[in-house]
Amino acid sequence: MKSKLIVGNWKMNGGLRTNSALLEAIQSGLSGVTCRAAVCVPAPYLAQMQTLLADSPVAWGAQDVSAHEAGAYTGEVSATMLQDFGVRYCIVGHSERRQYHSETDALVAVKAQRALSAGITPIVCVGETQAEREAGQTEAVVKRQLAAVIHANGHCISEIVVAYEPVWAIGTGLTAAPEQAQAVHALLRKQLQAASSQADRIAILYGGSMNAVNAATLLAQPDIDGGLVGGAALQADDFLTILNSASR
Ligand code: PGA
């Protein structure tokens, strides 16, 4: 069985001092943790991660990457810049970016491509809104979002990580029921298997109000390979409980 992967998504939170206190607390509690772990931090703190996590089993990542390689794109951060800071993972297509920055499926697919070509693992987020779920469109929406990335990335697809994050569960305290999440994970798995003979290497994470209490049950589902954790990743105790749940 491949080891599970837990990724903290700090979103736009943190500061030099709070980051180092949080990481110190996390690192001091890692004995017994056997799953893979990472934190995706705001871009200005990547250099700090490179220093503080250099000898740690905890990897670090970014939360976005430019779809462009270089040039006149004020405010953008390229994949090769992320590479300079030892970034292992990069979240792409988070629903907050799709929603507040109008990111399309096509743009997300190019971002995944940029990350892959810099040797960075894109964590491709897919997920339906409440309205889409109520309209019975969950399957169509997540398949469409993933299809764009599969189409643009061909055989490299086995190098990605997928995160299923129902939009209605993000930051709301509402979690998908384990069976609900499992059902979507199973269909994403099938879609990946149809696209690549190496699909079984791809971790499919669940995200959306995963916390210290519900993590174990979610992670016990056969197609849930880990978690993308927002709020609970900012509390060392909660994050460590999730890491321990993923290490069983
Ligand atoms: P949440 O966020 O755990 O706070 O719901 C998850 C995410 O947005 O990645």
If you had to describe this structure to a student in words, what would you say it looks like?
The chain is of the alpha/beta class and 248 residues long. The chain has a single domain, classed as TIM Barrel. The chain is built from ten helices and eight strands. It has an eight-stranded parallel β-barrel with strand order 1-2-3-4-5-6-7-8, surrounded by five helices. α1 packs parallel to α10 and α5 crosses α7. The protein starts with a strand and ends with a helix. The mean pLDDT is 96. It binds 2-phosphoglycolic acid.
Characteristics of this structure?
248 residues, alpha/beta, TIM Barrel, eight-stranded parallel barrel, 40% helix, globular, binds 2-phosphoglycolic acid
Quick take:
With 248 residues, the chain is of the alpha/beta class.
Summarize the amount of helix as a percent range: 25-40%
| Assigned CATH superfamily | Aldolase class I
- Described by the principal axes of the CA atoms, the overall outline is globular
- Overall structural class, as computed from helix and strand content, comes to alpha/beta
CATH topology type: TIM Barrel
- Stretches where pLDDT is under 50 for at least 5 consecutive residues are none
Mind telling me the CATH class?
Alpha Beta
- In whole angstroms, how far apart are the ends? 11 Å
Strand content: 5-15%
Please summarize the sheet with the most strands.
8 strands, parallel, barrel
Biggest sheet strand line-up: 1-2-3-4-5-6-7-8
Number of strands: 8
* Number of helices, counting only DSSP H or I runs of 4 residues or more: 10
Order of helices and strands: EHEHEHEHHEHHEHEHEH
